[in-house]
Design a protein that fits this description.
Elements lengths: L6 E6 L2 H9 L8 E4 L7 E4 L1 H4 L9 H7 L4 E3 L3 H18 L3 E5 L2 E5 L10 H18 L5 E6 L2 H8 L7 E3 L5 H5 L12 H9 L5 H5 L3 H8 L1 H11 L15 E12 L2 H21 L2 E12 L4 E12 L2 H13 L7 E13 L2 H4 L1 H11 L18 H7 L7 E4 L3 E9 L2 E5 L10 E5 L5 E3 L12
Parallel strand pairs: 2-4, 7-8
Antiparallel strand pairs: 1-6, 1-7, 2-3, 5-6, 9-12, 10-11, 10-12, 13-14, 13-17, 14-15, 15-16
Helix pairs in contact: 4-5, 10-11, 12-13
This protein binds 2'-deoxycytidine-5'-triphosphate and magnesium ion.
2'-deoxycytidine-5'-triphosphate binds next to strand 1, helix 1, strand 3 and helix 12.
């Protein structure tokens, strides 16, 4: 923990949905849900208007539709998110050489390395307001929430306190008082499972946690986790802001206090880890082709096994299925003390992959698969992708251009008809027109490559 509030955390508000509202004027101020729109789709994010109806990230789209039937349900446009992200990260790098992006819409900035006259609360507050205004202007209207504090932990907590479009600076010395009434899940690493274990021990708030001594915490949550929790409950966090951290793989692993021998428990754990990995991949806009499991046996020999998919995935069921299959080939009868799942061979999502779920469903159908059929397993021969892509080419939200009517976006498609709303970020809300899905005057639209800003 630093003596001054010099760690800044910036997080864009309702990021994907905000980009959609920027580019689709008729959706401004309205509920918008971005994510998989097919039968097994999941919500990536929702505009604040949709959140009022209880729509949340990671909820099934089915559930979101029942909570907010009048929302616009859009498939994402990843190129637009990456472009907005690059603009924001560029602005932050102008502010300080020490910028650590955590995902497309989120980064830490070390203000101690910025060119500020001092690091007093008033100075960093004013600076953050300028930065927020610059982000708003440079991105064409996106809002960012900012938190500033004496550590990464506090800065991140602070940026969430006054969302959306907020700024919270936690004055040095007030950190513990801020944390005490909060639920323990505010602490990084305290997920639902640890939160529940603590709750059963009567520990609900950070104040409760602060009252527990280290030995008891270690007994409750294990050695590795216990020490970290003990420190964070006291706002002790000395993690440095590290520039340009680059993830080559995303993984999740856990060690066990006693050796595991129960196969179904191991599978259950792998499935949960696969879920964590998939969530982190999608949060970072990544997907990967190689799935690896790591297994440490009772005698500390450590094995890893991996398999590579024909195309990148960020799907939890797919990663889980492959991980379980890899485990099936190992003899674990002597007991296992560590299990982990990782995904590597990471690629930035390309636009088609964002639609992976719908594409996957189409593939499943094309392959005559029943069951979950959501992704392609390595041994499955791929059908003609051009046909699939062509058939489902009009994604809700996708950019299109009409020879006479100009640019717009797909409002909906089905039964051979495509409905387009003709508007862009620079126009007022525009009219809606329908076309036959194979109307030769209607084309997918892509931003000309030379206009793309340089990737950081
Ligand atoms: N995202 C995703 N799947 C998730 C969570 C997030 O695809 N389970 C994507 C969509 C979000 C973006 O990452 O727009 C950023 O995630 P945030 O958690 O910062 O969420 P938002 O920016 O959407 O909202 P908030 O205003 O709460 O930051
Ligand atoms: Mg955000």
């Amino acid at each position: 923990m630093r003596a001054q509030a010099s760690v800044l955390h910036l997080d864009l508000d309702a990021f994907f949905a905000a980009v959609e509202q920027r580019d689709k004027p008729s959706l401004r101020g309205k509920p918008v849900v971005v994510g998989g729109v097919g039968g097994r789709g999941v919500v990536a994010t929702a505009s604040y208007e949709a959140r009022r109806f209880g729509v949340r990230s990671a909820m099934t789209t089915r559930e979101a539709r029942s909570r907010c039937p009048h929302a616009a349900f859009l498939t994402g446009r990843f190129h637009a998110y990456r472009e907005a992200s690059a603009i924001v990260m560029g602005l932050l790098r102008e502010a300080s050489p020490l910028v650590e992006p955590l995902s497309l819409d989120e980064a830490f900035v070390d203000l101690a390395a910025a060119d500020l006259p001092d690091l007093e609360v008033a100075t960093v507050s004013a600076y953050a307001e300028t930065l927020r205004a610059r982000v708003h202007e440079a991105t064409g209207g996106l809002t960012a929430s900012v938190g500033i504090g004496t550590s990464k932990f506090i800065a991140k907590v602070a940026s969430d306190l006054d969302k959306p479009d907020g700024l919270v600076v936690v004055a040095p010395g007030t950190e513990r008082e801020l944390l005490r009434p909060m639920n323990v899940t505010v602490i990084p690493g305290v997920g639902p499972a640890t939160g529940e274990r603590l709750r059963r021990a009567g520990i609900v708030t950070v104040a409760d946690l602060e009252a527990v001594d280290l030995d008891e915490l270690v007994r409750l949550v294990g050695k590795a986790h216990g020490a970290g929790l003990h420190a964070l409950a006291r706002a002790q966090d000395d993690r440095a802001v590290v520039a340009d951290r680059e993830a080559k793989s995303v993984s999740s692993e856990s060690t066990f206090d006693t050796d595991l021998t129960d196969r179904s428990l191991m599978e259950h754990l792998l499935t949960r880890q696969a879920g964590e990995v998939a969530t982190r991949l999608s949060k970072h806009g990544l997907s990967g082709r190689t799935v690896t499991i790591k297994v440490r046996m009772h005698d500390f020999t450590t094995l890893s096994r991996s398999t590579t998919l024909p195309s990148p995935t960020d799907s939890a069921p797919t990663v889980a299925r492959l991980a379980r299959r890899l485990l099936a080939d190992l003899d674990t009868s002597g007991g296992v003390r560590l299990l982990g799942v990782g995904v590597s061979g990471l690629a930035d999502w390309v636009q088609e992959d964002l639609f992976g779920e719908t594409l996957g469903e189409a593939l499943g159908e094309a392959l005559g698969e029943a069951g979950d059929g959501a992704e392609t397993a390595p041994e499955v021969e791929l059908p003609d992708l051009s046909r699939v892509r062509d058939r489902s080419g009009w994604w809700p939200g996708a950019d299109v251009v009409h020879d006479e009517l100009g640019r717009g976006w797909v409002w909906g498609a089905g039964r051979g008809v495509v409905t387009v709303r003709f508007e862009t970020a620079e126009t007022p809300a525009g009219p809606v027109r329908s076309f036959a899905h194979d109307d030769p005057a209607l084309h997918p639209w892509q931003k000309p490559v030379e206009d793309e800003p340089e990737e950081p």
